[in-house]
Structure formats: C-alpha cells, structure tokens
Amino acid sequence: MKAIILDMYGVIVKQTGDDFVPYVQRTFPNLEHDQIYEPWLKADRGEIDSLQVWAQIGFQGDLEQIEKDYLNTIELNNGFLDFVKAVRNHYKLAILSNDSSRWSEYLRKKFDINKYFDVISISSDLKMQKPDERIFLLTVEKLGVSAKDCYYIDDREGNLEAAQRLGMHAIMLNSRNAVYDGNVINSFEELLKIVF
User: Fold this and answer.
1) Out of 4, 86, 94, 156, which residue is the most buried by the measure of CB atoms under 10 Å away?
2) 39 preceded by cis ω (within 30°)?
3) Contacts of 10 (CB under 8 A, 6+ apart)
4) Which residues make Cβ contacts (< 8 Å) with residue 23, sequence separation at least 6?
C-alpha cells in the first residue's frame, strides 16, 4: 500500500456535517432540512460561493463573520495529528472531501494541515462530488499510484462503496454510528494498527 486518502468531515474533523441543520435552525427554527441543505449542496458542487449559502438560507449582515462563527465550532478529530505525523513519511496522503472551496480552505488553514498532504481534492474546486468515481480516480492519478495501492477512509457508506469498486481498500471511521458491512474502525489509533 502506497497512499492513504482521507475524507474531511467525520474523519479529519469530528463534525460530520449533520450538525449544520440544527445549527441553522437555532436562528431559523421553521426552515426545513431540504431548504437548508439545498444551498449547501450547491456550494459543494461549486455552483455558488459559500457566502451565498448563508444568504440563501436567510442570514443577513456580516456573512463572513456568520460563516466563521459556524466553522469555528468544528474541531479536529482525536488522534488525527498523531496519526498523520506517524504515517506521512511512509505513505502519500490525500484529502478527498465534498466541501465548498472557502470552508475547506478556512478549516485547513485553521488547523494548519495542508503541509501533511500531497494532494487535496475538494468537490467545489473540481465540480464533481463523491460518490462520483471520477473524483476518486483524479485523486489517485494526482498521487501517482493505482487505486489498489490506496487506503480510503470515510464515514459514509456510499463513498466507501465507490472507492471499493475502484479497488481501494475502504475503511469506515465510524463517527456516525452507521451500519457497514466492510472494514470498520472507531479511532485513528485503530487505523494506525491497520496501516503499519
């Protein structure tokens, strides 16, 4: 195995994205789930800027500060830094994340993690999202390895299944208490034992 590809939400950071709707509903309690996620998904696809997410939901005022307030609730997952420092000289590393460009850039700078990764594939930048196999193949190509030489870590079954179809060794970091028939770990400490 030559590379480890990591999802962002629910893997590198604790938050899975499932907290976004309740976060917004504190301000707009009558908004439905779909009304909140529709602009979020547009930003993930690169169709709108992330500041437009807040505007389309109904927030007014300093949208940059509103966005920053939300992003500052997000924390690195326990054990991630120890893990990435332990593996970085033994594997090529990539982030593969469905995210808006601004959110991803903000979080990566906030946690100072760009330096650990050889490749960073963000759906908004690439105009394609997981589980579209093209975004996996593009990431593998940029890493300069074959899919069968990659570990792929995610918290969502559909993404793991797509990676597995391409020949990757898919592992669920079970941050969402999901049911998954494949390889499941509960911490970066467990992942470290698998990759070494």
Assistant:
1) 4
2) no
3) 16, 17, 154, 155, 156, 173, 175, 176
4) 70, 73
Tell me how far apart the alpha carbons of residues 182 and 43 are, in angstroms, rounded to a whole number.
30
Distance in angstroms (rounded) separating the CA atoms of residues 182 and 158: 12
Smallest Cα–Cα separation from 5: which of 105, 147, 150, 106? Answer: 150
How far apart, in whole angstroms, are the C-alpha atoms of residue 183 and residue 188? 14
Q: Where are the alpha helices (DSSP H) in 33-156?
A: 33-44, 50-57, 63-71, 80-87, 101-110, 123-126, 133-143
pLDDT tops 90 at residue 177:
no
Ramachandran angles phi, psi of 94, nearest 5°: -140, 150
pTM over 0.85: yes
The per-residue pLDDT for range 110-149, each reduced to its tens digit, is 999 999 999 999 999 999 999 999 999 999 999 999 999 9
Q: Which tokens belong to 73?
A: 């609730």
Separation CA 162–CA 20 (nearest Å): 25
- Look up tokens 């330096």; give the residue: 115
Give me the residue label for tokens 């969402």. 176
